[in-house]
């Protein structure tokens, strides 16, 4: 059967093969509106959205524009989904697909290149899913090998005693 040092070498080899699977584009996200795909130890991959003094983008892919508004009397609010600050009162002027005081109510009809119940998915979301499936498959194979080798090792130990 397989000796323990051989088992350790095989396991390390398999884990290294799984851990360092890369593609031409290491970022699994499609970041839009001049956002940057970044990676951190705590958050993993994420889109770092562009923000200016009074506006910017938010959402998983930085796909949703917003505008910060104020009326000069210390009242502040934010218009979502491309809404613009109303010239009177504390509300927003919304585009075609949104309504409500702050343009947060979706009326339907996603623009080109978006999907999902609130048009929150932009571009090729399947890239992230494929990356996760490959990692999980590699870990499952490694676990099966470890269980098989440990069972063989335990059988050898019990027959030798």
Helix content: 25-40%
Principal-axis shape: elongated
Strand order of the largest sheet: 3-4-5
Beta strands, count: 11
Count of DSSP H/I helices: 2
Low-confidence residue ranges: 18-23
Q: Which structural class best describes the helix and strand composition?
A: alpha+beta
Q: Strand fraction band?
A: 15-25%
Q: Spell out the helices and strands N to C.
A: HEEEEEEEEEEEH
The rounded Rg comes to 25 Å
Average the pLDDT over all residues and give the rounded result: 74
Largest sheet: 3 strands, antiparallel
Distance between the termini: 16 Å
Fold topology:
Blueprint: H1 4-19, E1 36-40, E2 44-48, E3 55-58, E4 64-70, E5 76-80, E6 84-85, E7 92-93, E8 98-99, E9 105-106, E10 114-115, E11 121-122, H2 126-160
Antiparallel strand pairs: 1-2, 3-4, 4-5, 6-7, 8-9, 10-11
Q: Would you mind describing this structure in some detail?
A:
The protein has helices at 4-19, 126-160, and strands at 36-40, 44-48, 55-58, 64-70, 76-80, 84-85, 92-93, 98-99, 105-106, 114-115, 121-122. With 161 residues, the protein is of the alpha+beta class. It has a three-stranded antiparallel beta sheet with strand order 3-4-5, with no helix packed on it. A hairpin with a 6-residue loop joins strand 6 (84-85) and strand 7.
């Amino acid at each position: 059967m397989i000796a323990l040092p051989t088992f350790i070498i095989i396991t390390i080899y398999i884990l290294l093969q799984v851990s360092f699977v890369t593609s031409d584009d290491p970022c699994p996200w499609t970041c839009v509106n001049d956002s940057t795909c970044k990676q951190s130890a705590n958050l993993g991959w994420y889109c770092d959205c562009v923000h200016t003094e009074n506006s910017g983008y938010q959402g998983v892919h930085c796909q949703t524009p917003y505008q910060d508004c104020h009326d000069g009397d210390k009242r502040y609010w934010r218009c979502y989904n491309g809404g613009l600050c109303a010239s009177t009162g504390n509300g927003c002027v919304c585009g075609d697909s949104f309504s409500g005081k702050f343009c947060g109510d979706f009326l339907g009809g996603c623009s080109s290149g978006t999907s999902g119940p609130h048009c929150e998915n932009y571009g090729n979301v399947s890239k992230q899913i494929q990356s996760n499936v490959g990692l999980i498959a590699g870990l499952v194979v490694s676990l099966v090998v470890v269980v098989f080798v440990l069972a063989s090792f335990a059988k050898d130990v019990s027959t030798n005693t």
